[in-house]
Design brief:
The structure holds two protein chains of two kinds.
Chain A (H helix, E strand, L loop, with lengths): L3 H19 L2 H26 L5 E4 L10 E4 L1 H17 L16 H20 L3 H20 L5 H31 L4 H11 L3 H18 L7 H8 L2 H26 L2 H7 L2 H21 L4 H21 L3 H32 L15 H15 L5 H15 L3 H27 L13 H19 L2 H15 L4
Antiparallel strand pairs in A: 1-2
Helix pairs in contact in A: 1-2, 1-4, 2-3, 2-4, 3-4, 3-10, 3-14, 4-5, 4-10, 5-6, 5-10, 6-8, 6-9, 8-10, 9-10, 9-13, 10-13, 10-14, 12-13, 12-17, 13-14, 13-17, 14-15, 14-16, 14-18, 14-19, 15-17, 15-18, 16-17, 16-18
Chain B lengths: L1 H5 L4 H8 L6 H20 L8 E3 L2 E3 L6 H20 L6 H18 L4 H20 L4 H32 L12 H13 L7 H6 L5 H22 L6 H18 L3 H22 L2 H32 L15 H15 L5 H15 L3 H27 L13 H19 L1 H5 L13 H23 L16 H4 L1 H39 L11 H26 L1
Antiparallel strand pairs in B: 1-2
Helix pairs in contact in B: 2-3, 2-5, 3-4, 4-5, 4-10, 4-13, 4-17, 5-6, 5-10, 6-7, 6-10, 7-8, 8-10, 10-12, 10-13, 11-12, 11-16, 12-13, 12-15, 12-16, 13-14, 13-15, 13-17, 14-16, 14-17, 15-16, 15-17, 16-19
Classes of the chains: A mainly alpha, B mainly alpha.
Chain lengths: 490, 570
């Protein structure tokens, strides 16, 4: 029990090279899935331990905190850990795609190894209490993600991965420069320590610069408008399982990191009072919401449509952050889980379609709902979640965002949230219209997608419905986590 | 079991609809018929109140089964069963699912104990019902459905806004009697009014219902507006304002119904007129009037769906539904003709049929409360009902001149559904106590007194005589595409001319505004499209260099912002 925090990271980190040693495709698949499930179990246990409200601190190698690396689990990151590991556990079993299509069977072990590494990196960013360690894990997850995207079936996947690598590296460099400034000013890398030491030096321009570099660097990883340009290509050319996993976790972890730095390390009063970060983020969030949704409306491929919708949904999360209030932060944090479930489920539904038709172009979806009713029922529910219809998880997030906007005295922002939901309605409608009201094309497949993909899809979509009604485990925890962060947990 | 009984009736229909994709053939049909029965059994054993549910710190009551809700629940289930039977031979799974979801949401909305739950199911009915319009899969239906959806969702938004204001003013979300003077209450009244098709808010009804599928219209005619009547009866019983509104509703559609050629649109207008009686009953607000409203809603749902079913059968077999294109169908569709006549005499209020025993309640209640003007107007409107629904529908469809159409009789499930509805009309008409017993307030009322019966018969006979005379002297020409006819010269000369002039002026104004707005809108959409489709700036990913540039710009902006903020503070 005491070693759970380190196991959370060490397990997938060690399992990844073991996958390479194991090599045999089937054995590796079973092994990797078991590891992912174990990670979920550990994350749930950690969340259970963090629920009473305190923070669990774990000193790596027994070195005490300011010098050694500290893992620190409180409600906010336990919540993120559960989301990341749950998505990994649900998505990993569907594998790299149709056999022999994306990855030759004898190289499949590389997919599983990279996937586990990516999971380890993302969870590491969430769990660690050491800011340099954050950078290391950020790079681990990014490098693994580049590899995963490059596994895509089309040749453009390589270009998408490469340009993501370029942009991601710029982001990583910015983060590193920010960390450098902080270390120069305080002489420490431990987050709790930083929180204690920063107020003394926070008037210095170096600290301002550090925060600016960190914000923009994380902004690239988070795909804040206008730094979102890597995202559409990366998500639409990656293998379906990778799109589902990255779309639902990678940007969420970056969001968590920004929240942790802004509220935990630098402090709410400094970031939102003295620096006025809200004034910078609010317009970007609104632009992202509208540009993302509008671009999604005009896409001709379902995967790209969903990718642009992600840009728009990230806008909602940034919007929640930009108010600097507990309600707004609750909305942003709960959207981590809600959007992960909804978008993960939708990308898996795309995987179902691709498995049957080999294409995700909207023109190839015509009339498909008659052949694949379950898949398109999932898309309809997920789509309603993106719009934020009552009864779906998306409604819960938007409820908090609208509430936060109103209590911040910004009714026009609340109105903008509702208006962009209307745009979401349009792009969701385009998909459903094609699938339900058009006559099928001749070459349409005869049957429903294999259960191997359909079951994970419905697990996520079902969860998004469940958490649309019973919000104790999502909104409840997000609310408590937001309160903990605002009270200054590092 | 207890978990199911804590859920409102109707949720079973919604859940059952989700199983449809799994079923085929006979199992599918059996399931479609069993669901309304199962759901009705669910209603019968529903406890009086379900446990409150905590939702975002609000207390929601999903289930509140009081006599008013239960009475509406009975007829909604009956309508769902008849409509499901009518739609049985249909091959379109989506319509089956949409019909069940729609009926389920409408029933669940009846049992909502608070405004938020009501709102959720209110919107759910809008979403599910629009599928019944779109399922016709024609361009017209697509447009009409979209207009319908906008209005329905708009009504839900009004309801939510009203609920929020009401909550702020009173601190309670419970759905009980509301104050129409308060801003929250006024918004909610407006939301109900949109759905109940109050005058000037009514256009969606005549616009959308005739465009729905053959079976879809039967579902539509039963639930949406009657849900609004239920909501009005619960929220605004005794609001005097509703009496003039209701009287207007009984009057103005008559004129349109008489000149309209599309038979299903005629029925949509007469639906509006029937709602007027119920709205008057709610406005009077005495126990007798409210019982009359419920009773009239009950019998109305049945005979109106019967009429829509008959016209649907004609549309199915003939393929068109304009009065001038039909005629003489009694030879080929005798059963449908008979059932249609039962529906027509019911809606006209002929003694021994259901309309008579329910409309009488409202009329007597209005008279008891000395709303003499309203009472007289309703009596006059009754004559109009006979004109447009009671005679026009069966006469022009099945008799009149023989159009030479020889088609097959309606399919068997449709005939059974129509037969069941016709039987219900007759049974209620002959044994009214069956209906009176389920009303929310005990009713001790005898509709079959000599005065009632003779008065009603006089009215009907003279109206029929007028129709016959007009026909004899060829003032009632059925061959015209747009037939403009009524006994009352006032309607024929003054009112139509005024309305037409007003409509022309309005059309001109609207056209002018529309072209301007349309031009602006097109320009805006073209601009957005240019920038958001792939070759445009925002529609396609940029190079890594551009991102680097943006990152640098954003960094510069944030540095500048932080510098300025801290410099200003320091």
């Amino acid at each position: 029990m005491t070693h759970l925090p380190v196991l959370q990271i060490a397990l997938p980190l060690i399992a990844a090279p073991l996958c390479v040693l194991l090599r045999h495709a089937r054995a590796v698949q079973i092994f990797a899935v078991l590891v992912a499930w174990a990670c979920l179990g550990i994350a749930l246990a950690l969340l259970g331990a963090a629920l009473p409200g305190g923070a669990i601190s774990y000193e790596l190698g027994g070195w005490p905190a300011p010098l050694g690396i500290e893992y620190r689990v409180d409600l906010a990151n336990a919540f993120v850990l559960v989301v990341v590991s749950a998505l990994g556990a649900v998505v990993l079993p569907i594998g790299p795609g149709r056999r022999g299509h994306a990855v030759p069977p004898r190289r499949e072990y590389l997919f599983y190894a990279s996937f586990l590494l990516c999971m380890a990196g993302l969870m590491g960013v969430a769990i660690t209490g050491d800011i340099f360690n954050v950078f290391v894990f950020l790079e681990i997850s990014s490098l693994a993600a580049y590899t995963l995207i490059a596994l895509g079936r089309q040749r453009q996947a390589l270009r998408a991965a490469f340009s993501y690598l370029m942009m991601g590296t710029i982001g990583g460099t910015f983060v590193l420069i920010g960390i450098g400034f902080l270390y120069q000013m305080t002489g420490t890398l431990n987050m709790a320590d930083l929180q204690r030491l920063l107020p003394a030096v926070q008037q210095s321009r170096s600290v301002h610069a550090a925060f600016a570099f960190l914000t923009v660097g994380i902004g690239i990883k988070l795909a804040v408008f206008p730094l979102h340009q890597w995202l559409p290509n990366a998500y639409s050319f990656a293998p379906p399982a990778v799109s589902a996993f990255l779309a639902s976790t990678a940007t969420k972890v970056a969001y968590y990191l920004l929240v942790r730095l802004a509220f935990g390390v630098f402090g709410t009063a400094y970031v939102f009072g003295a620096l006025g970060l809200g004034a910078l983020l609010l317009p970007l969030a609104l632009l992202a919401m509208f540009v993302g949704a509008l671009a999604a409306i005009y896409q001709s491929d379902l995967k790209r449509l969903l990718a642009y919708s992600s840009v728009s949904q990230i806008g909602y999360m940034i919007l929640g952050l930009s108010f600097g209030t507990a309600t707004g932060l609750t909305g942003g944090l709960v959207h981590i889980a809600n959007h992960a479930l909804t978008k993960g489920g939708l990308f898996l539904a795309v995987a179902c379609i691709v498995a049957q038709t080999g294409s995700s172009a909207l023109s190839d979806l015509r009339g498909l709902s008659r052949r694949m009713p379950w898949t398109f029922a999932a898309i309809a529910i997920g789509g309603l979640g993106l719009i934020g219809a009552p009864g779906t998880a998306g409604f819960v997030s938007k409820w908090y965002l609208v509430l936060a906007a109103l209590s911040a005295g910004r009714p026009e922002v609340a109105f903008a949230v509702l208006l962009s939901s209307l745009l979401a309605g349009i792009y969701v409608w385009r998909v459903l219209e094609a699938a339900w009201f058009r006559d099928p094309v001749q070459s349409a497949p005869r049957g429903e997608a294999p259960l191997r993909i359909l079951i994970p899809t419905w697990v996520l979509i079902g969860a998004s419905l469940y958490f649309g009604v019973f919000t104790e485990w999502t909104a409840g925890i997000a609310e408590a986590a937001a309160r903990q962060l605002l009270e200054g947990a590092p | 079991m207890s978990a199911i009984s804590a859920l409102p009736p109707g949720t079973l229909l919604i859940a059952g609809a989700l199983l449809l994709p799994l079923l085929r053939g006979a199992a599918l049909k059996a399931w479609l018929l069993a669901l309304p029965l199962l759901s009705f059994a669910h209603q019968l054993q529903a406890p009086e109140a379900g446990p409150p549910l905590q939702f975002f710190g609000l207390e929601l009551v999903l289930l509140r089964a009081d006599p008013l809700a239960l009475a509406f629940g009975v007829v909604f289930h009956l309508a769902a069963l008849i409509a499901a039977l009518y739609a049985l031979q249909l091959q379109d799974r989506m319509q089956h699912a949409a019909g069940l979801l729609y009926a389920g949401a409408a029933i669940a909305a009846l049992f909502a104990g608070d405004l938020i739950t009501l709102f959720i199911f209110w919107e759910f009915t809008a979403l599910a019902s629009v599928l019944l319009i779109w399922a016709r899969r024609s361009e017209r239906a697509r447009h009409a459905g979209l207009r319908y959806l906008v209005v329905q969702v708009g009504s839900g938004v009004l309801l939510l806004a009203g609920a929020a204001l009401h909550y702020r003013a009173t601190g309670s979300l419970a759905f009980g009697a509301l104050a129409p003077q308060s801003p929250g209450g006024a918004l909610i009244l407006l939301a109900f009014g949109v759905k109940a098709a109050f005058p000037l808010l009514h256009n969606w009804l005549q616009d959308a219902y005739p465009e729905a599928t053959v079976t879809g219209t039967v579902f539509l005619s039963a639930f949406t507006t009657k849900l609004a009547i239920y909501a009005l009866a619960r929220g605004f019983a005794g609001t005097e304002l509703l009496i003039p509104i209701g009287v207007t509703m009984t009057f103005f559609p008559i004129f349109y119904a008489v000149v309209e050629n599309d038979m299903r649109r005629v029925l949509a207008y007469s639906l509006n007129n029937q709602l007027g009686y119920m709205v008057v009953g709610i406005g009077v607000g005495t126990p007798l009037a409210l019982s009359g409203t419920v009773a009239h809603a009950f019998s109305h749902i049945i005979y109106k769906s019967l009429l829509f079913m008959a016209m649907g059968a004609v549309l199915l077999r003939v393929g068109r539904i304009g009065a001038s294109q039909l005629g003489g169908l009694y030879r080929s569709m005798p059963w449908t003709t008979a059932f249609c006549i039962v529906g027509a005499v019911s809606i006209s209020g002929l003694p021994l049929f259901s309309g008579f025993i329910s409309k009488s309640l409202i009329l007597s209640a209005a008279a008891e409360q000395h709303h003499t003007v309203a009472w007289a107007m309703l009596i006059i409107a009754s004559a109009g009902v006979l004109k447009h629904s009671g005679i026009k529908i069966p006469y022009f469809a099945f008799f009149a001149h023989d159009s030479g159409l020889r088609v097959r009789e309606a399919p068997l499930p449709m005939l059974i559904a129509m037969g069941a509805a016709a039987t219900a009309c007759l049974v209620i008409g002959v044994w009214p106590q069956l209906l009176y017993d389920i009303l929310p307030h005990p009713v001790n009322y005898e509709p079959y007194t000599a005065a009632h019966v003779i008065g009603q018969l006089q009215l009907l006979l003279f109206a029929a005589l007028a129709f016959a005379l007009l026909l004899r002297f060829r003032i009632y020409p059925p061959e015209l595409r747009a037939t403009n006819l009524d006994t009352d010269w006032l309607y024929r000369r003054a009112l139509p001319a005024a309305i037409r002039a007003a409509a022309r002026a309005q059309r001109r104004l609207r056209a002018a505004a529309q072209t301007r707005a349309a031009r602006l809108g097109h320009a805006l959409i073209a601009w957005l499209r240019r920038h958001h489709t792939p070759p445009g700036l925002l529609g396609e990913p940029w190079s890594a260099g551009a991102t680097a540039l943006w990152a640098a710009l954003l960094l510069a902006a944030s540095l500048l912002l932080f510098y300025l903020r801290t410099a200003a503070a320091g």
